[in-house]
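User: Hi! I have a protein structure encoded as tokens and I'd like to know what sequence might fold into it. I'm fairly new to this, so please keep things simple.
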């Protein structure tokens, strides 16, 4: 994967199967930011831990996702979301998924959701983000996985077939 060639480091804890950290040199980052929320949400950083370590909320999206930063210099400018990330919305109808291959699980679960949608006649489109420019222009603060329905951001949480069908039934 090209991201590893650019210096991506992925470390998974042996303590908890879902605990990991990944980072990349900022000059190669597709979207150099750390994402959290007011309360702990799946696949986002723990806000309590980040606040404890001195991080601050720099910006908040309409989806309740916070951009956090660690100030090294009080005079430095505070990072901000792009307008598209701050107000996640698309024009397309049906279910639309923006994703990258940065997350190792997308290679397994995106095709499962595509197949499930096809088998159940669910309007679905998957758009893989492949470049830094696409990631920086994405319509969501979450570029690894962002599911929309009828233009509105739903979640950054990955789905298997059962979770996707449960989501469909709730709409």
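Assistant: Happy to help. Inverse folding works backwards from shape to sequence: for each of the 171 positions I chose a residue that suits the local structure. Here it is:
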């Amino acid at each position: 994967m090209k991201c590893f060639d650019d210096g991506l480091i992925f470390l998974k804890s042996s303590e908890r199967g879902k605990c990991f950290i990944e980072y990349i040199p900022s000059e190669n980052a597709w979207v150099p930011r750390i994402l959290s929320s007011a309360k702990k949400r799946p696949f986002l950083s723990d806000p309590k831990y980040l606040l404890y370590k001195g991080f601050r909320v720099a910006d908040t999206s309409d989806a309740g996702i916070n951009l956090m930063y660690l100030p090294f210099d009080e005079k430095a400018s505070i990072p901000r979301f792009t307008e598209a990330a701050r107000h996640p919305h698309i024009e397309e109808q049906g279910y639309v998924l923006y994703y990258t291959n940065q997350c190792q699980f997308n290679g397994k679960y995106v095709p499962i959701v595509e197949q499930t949608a096809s088998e159940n006649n669910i309007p679905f489109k998957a758009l893989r983000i492949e470049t830094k420019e696409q990631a920086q222009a994405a319509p969501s603060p979450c570029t690894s996985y962002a599911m929309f329905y009828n233009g509105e951001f739903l979640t950054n949480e990955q789905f298997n077939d059962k979770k996707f069908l449960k989501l469909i039934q709730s709409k």
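A useful reference point when you look it over: The chain has two domains: 2-80, 85-170. Feel free to ask if any position seems puzzling.
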